Amino acid sequence: METAVKEKSRIFRFGNRTTDGSKEMKNLLGGKGANLAEMSRIGIPVPPGFTITTEVCTEYHQIGKEALIEKLRPDVEEGVKYVEKIMGKTYGDSENPLLLSVRSGARKSMPGMMDTVLNLGLNDEVVEGLVKKTNNERFVWDSYRRFIQMYGSVVLGMKPDTKEDTDIFEEIMDDLKERRKIKLDTEFSVEDLKELVVAFRKIVKQRTGKNIPSDPWEQLWDATMAVFDSWNGNRALYYRKMHGYPSDWGTAVNVQAMVFGNMGDNSATGVCFTRDAGSGENVFNGEYLMNAQGEDVVAGVRTPQQITKLGSKRWAELARIDEKERREKYPSLEELLPDLYAELNEYQKKIETHYRDMQDMEFTIQEGRLWILQTRDGKRTGTAMIKIAVDLLKEGLIDKKEAIMRIEPMKLDELLHPVFDPRALENAHVIAQGLPASPGAATGQIVFFADEADKFKNSILVRIETSPEDLEGMNIARGILTARGGMTSHAAVVARGMGKCCVSGAGALNIDYKKREMKVGDKEYHEGDWISLNGSTGNIIEGKVATVEPELSDDLAEILELSDAFSSMKVRTNADTPNDAIAARNFGARGIGLTRTEHMFFGQDRIRAMREMILADTRNGRRRALRELLPMQRGDFEGIFEAMQGFPVTIRLLDPPLHEFVPHELAHQKELAKDMHISVKAVKNKVDELKEFNPMLGHRGCRLGNTYPEITEMQTRAIIEAALNVKEKGVEVKPEIMVPLVGTLKEFTLQEQVIRNTARKVFSERNDRVEFLVGTMIEIPRAALTADKIAVHAEFFSFGTNDLTQMVFGYSRDDVGKFLPVYYEKGILSNDPFESLDQEGVGQLIRTGIEKGRSTNPKLKIGICGEHGGEPSSIEFCYRVGMDYVSCSPFRVPIARVASAQAAIKNKEATV
Ligand code: PEP
Ligand code: MG
Predict the structure, then answer these.
(1) Neighbour-count burial of 206, counting CB atoms closer than 10 A to its CB (0-12 exposed, 13-18 middle, 19+ buried)
(2) How far is ligand 2, taken at its centre, from the CA of residue 760, in Å?
(3) 592-596 and 369-377 as β-strands: parallel, antiparallel, unpaired?
(4) In angstroms, rounded to a whole number, what is the distance separating the alpha carbons of residues 874 and 896?
(5) What pTM did the predictor assign?
(6) Are both 883 and 749 inside the same structural domain?
(7) Rounded distance, CA 292 to CA 288, Å?
(8) Looking at the 3D structure of the chain, how many domains does it have?
(9) CA 767, 768, 769: angle at the middle one, nearest 5?
(10) One domain, residues 463 and 572
(11) Given ligand 1 and candidates 592, 776, 777, which is best to mutate, with the most ligand atoms within 8 Å of its CB?
């Protein structure tokens, strides 16, 4: 076996157990290419071919088509010769022709986002020769019509006239089916297929002004360049942005000998998963179609059959088909072709064991011979991701570290989404049934076009089938419903990858795009009507269905526990109410990193006292109003301390500018004046007085506490009294009082004095005490730069990276959305710095702040409480710079626990 790995080349060959590449070479060969090489290496039958590297894609975008072809020609000619030799056929030869496929493949799989062209090498003469050679006229003409269809769309860029149009090729075929009174494309006669070829060619010429070239080499070059072009197509661009893949990766192109699943009744094609991509269950599953080519399965042209007997039975149960009919009309591959099934089963086990992860494979059976066309790590739902990682760990295929590294932290979000309330489901009116393609619960208003998914706040995208163009809309919609397509259809695969609820293949739906209407039996549903989807059962339900919060599964709990053992960096939560605190504790938060006390002032019963305080002209007047607020704050703090059961709780003093608390509309100002027994003018004057040009840089944060120390006094009293009350109940309390928006040392020390004096007073009144810390947020650049001075007095730092980012970039955090899209487009920014921490710029200030702070106070406790505390790449940064904890919203706590463990694993490994 030839297994030498080439160092530098433009093409890498594979097939017939020879290979130039390996699975480690994804960056250069793309995922598909690297895996084809690897499968070839381990003795899996893959059709021979070669991979043109991702570097060539980059070169193409730099030097252009002509220059590239010039350079690439000798390599590609050599590659084609290699394939010809193994296959014993010649590309472009009319007597013994080799046909090729050209497929994209980036280093990370981007299903359906880039292009593929099959059956290259066909023209009128080759068709004639192939008919003679195969004696299978039907197969040859079927392949030819597919070639024209694909070449027209992908290479020549044919598009529907309007979005209401269905695929024109499909329309032509449907029209012919109607005339012939047949249902399936397998029922077309040779004459029909010939007619289709003529009609397809005509429409391609009409719409693109171009003919399909008959020169096989011209076809090969143009198709290759079209795949390179698709790297920069809209779909790929959007997908890359969604996943944060850089544009300089490029795609590889895999040129491969065609094998045919459409050669008759001993040929088939299918897609399979080594485990269930929805639930994670360890059952081999998949779908296939007899006498078809690969795209038929994915595009949902015909309803595919299940590979295994078990899958077939489950499917029939859902579709309410009885066992006899199932066996006759929809037999599984296991039943129909048991020997080939056994072979496939053997390969899937071998491949999964080799890759040590769930695989998504494509295969073709050509006249009784099985070929594996590709394998890749299967896209899966959050639930499946967790279950598969835990199972592989138990099966001994991976160790604990790897199990944690297998988790995509952000995908855990899906597991925390609401699910349908089982009681509400009892009375639900199920209008139709589809396949449970991607689990979850979705309620929303119907839209029929992906680019209208944002028409309603909650929309359900209803399509005959989805295409890669629909990606953006699929992402926006709450759920996806398709009339056609199976569990491996585009909609199903993409939805599972997104963790979006999807019901596919609901054959009872009759969708009319032009009328924007969906019919089920006699009942019509229009755009804007509410429906609900149960992605776990495939039920389609009329109207809205109530939802409830989900519970953590045992598998998730296991992963989270494992994670905690790996990282010394703790995860706290940002919580403002006892309820949030309890939710966060249930998710495993080990303390509170930020309680924004101002949120407690917005309640109906509290805003009045707050306003009274703001409207007061004298210190005494303010004190009076603050006395009213004191018991309310104290009550909230008690609830939070109790929920946290001895874990530290950081409470921040009042932060926002006061104008946020007063009414700005005249009607509301009038009400307030009446309520407070003062004139409307007095209210208006006060509101005007509070107006600022840059409120975020204005009278807020510790500037409030320093101008009105009585606010700090009241808040400190509420915190300390609450702590003593809870302590009396026997619960341990660890309050940490945090001063916001400090820029100079004195701003901090003056507030610290007020806090400590007030605490002392309360202790002596109560004749009891509690330990507490006083610290500050680091959210103003000057604080980071002078952290050594501040840390002499502060007992902890919490990086407020929302404000810090705002001030380091000079972008208003509330207005950044206006220019961000253009900044992405122009490559000025590659992501939102308010979402994922700008490690290069803001990160420098954080490093400086930590180094300086610890230089004068080695015991300084350091954390982060900006939004970045719940974002995986930022969490890794926090770990690297030595923070003690990150703090994030309750629903991000599980994400942060895993991300924190991953950071520890990655970085410890890096230093070993
Ligand atoms: C911050 O600035 O990062 C922070 C946590 O405070 P806020 O978002 O309340 O300004
Ligand atoms: Mg802030």
Answers:
(1) exposed
(2) 28
(3) unpaired
(4) 10
(5) 0.84
(6) yes
(7) 9
(8) 4
(9) 135
(10) no
(11) 777
User: 591 and 539 in one domain?
Assistant: no
Dist. CA 701 → ligand 2 center (Å): 8
**Gap between the Cα atoms of 493 and 378, Å rounded:** 9
Which residues are registered as beta bridge partners of 861?
A: 796
> Do 538 and 573 lie in a common domain?
no
> Residue 86 domain-assigned?
yes
Residue at 400: amino acid letter: K
Given a contact cutoff of 8 angstroms between Cβ atoms, the answer to whether 22 and 13 are in contact is no
SS3 for 568?
Answer: coil
Tokens of 139: 């197969």
Reported as a single tens digit per residue, the pLDDT across 60-71 is: 999 999 999 999
Average pLDDT score over residue span 544-551: 85
Q: What is the CATH number of the domain that holds 300?
A: 3.30.470.20
Residues near ion ligand 2 (Cβ under 5 Å) = 779, 800, 803
Supply the angle between the helices 54-63 and 65-87 in degrees, to the nearest 10: 150
Q: How far apart are CA 130 and CA 754, in angstroms?
A: 92
CATH number for the domain including 539? 3.50.30.10
Q: At a CB cut-off of 8 Å and minimum separation 6, what does 904 contact?
A: 566, 567, 568, 569, 879
Give SS3 for 285: strand
The single residue of 57, 702, 865, 888 carrying the catalytic annotation is 865
Given the structure tokens 């510790």, which residue do they identify?
702
pLDDT in tens, 138-151: 999 999 999 999 99
Q: In terms of domains, do 253 and 285 share one?
A: no
Query: Is 490 tagged catalytic?
Result: yes
Q: Which residue has the CA at smallest separation from atom 9 of ligand 1?
A: 596
Q: CB–CB of 640/649 below 8 Å?
A: yes
**How far is the C-alpha of 745 from the C-alpha of 192, rounded, in Å?**
85
How far apart, in whole angstroms, are the C-alpha atoms of residue 269 and residue 364? 4
Name the residue among 572, 501, 571 with its Cα closest to residue 538. Answer: 501
* 556-582 pLDDT per residue, tens: 999 999 999 999 999 999 998 898 899
Considering the domain boundaries, does residue 680 fall inside one?
no
Burial degree of 735 (CB within 10 A; 0-12, 13-18, 19+): buried
User: Same domain for 788 and 838?
Assistant: yes
- pLDDT of 343 reads 97
- 462 forms bridges with which residues in the sheet? 481
Q: Determine the structural domain holding residue 278 and report its residue range.
A: 268-380
